[in-house]
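Give me the fold.
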Amino acid sequence: MSFEENREALVKNLLFEKRIISEKVKNAFLNTPRELFLPDSLKKYAYADTPLQIGKGQTISAPHMVAIMCEELDIKEGQKILEIGAGSGYHAAVVANITGENGHVYTIERFSVLAENAKQNLERAEIKNVTVELGDGSEGLSKYAPYDRIYVTCGAPDIPPPLIEQLKDPGKLLIPVGGTICTLILLEKKDNKTKTYNCGGCAFVPLIGKHGYHSL
């Protein structure tokens, strides 16, 4: 099968599993070619529902986890969004598709080689509403704050205070908390108050930085 046929089959399966629920997430998956965010040796696995190694001990998340996170965040068109952990750029690309040309995704990556690679992948996919920055994601990205939505693609020991500070009111923040096995936590900020919700278990590489784990 072609990449497009495999992509359609994956989306059909994610709909059946109720990982994808909304039309906007479904369309974002159909419009984002995951194969463009993988090295040539892994392109044949582009639509396997599994995480894949992308170098520096990092992974591109399994499609079902990207879908779950997009649905939990309830992304709206035109929103300004912060992603912690750019990786290959794929997750940001899906989110950018949902928020549309009037919205923007800022993504921060601690490895310069991955940040550069993500930029090239996004250019190849002709996605123009994503900005890739190099830095410590546990400190957020204050120069573009505040954000309507913030999500983290690595497991943290706790929710970093700068991320809560950089979140709009109202706004939503989604973060895996824990070690290798994490709990996906949704934080909602409204009227200067925050509430957290348990969205289930997950597995992620660790968040390294000032407000994350200090070393592997």
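The first helix runs from residue 3 to 16.
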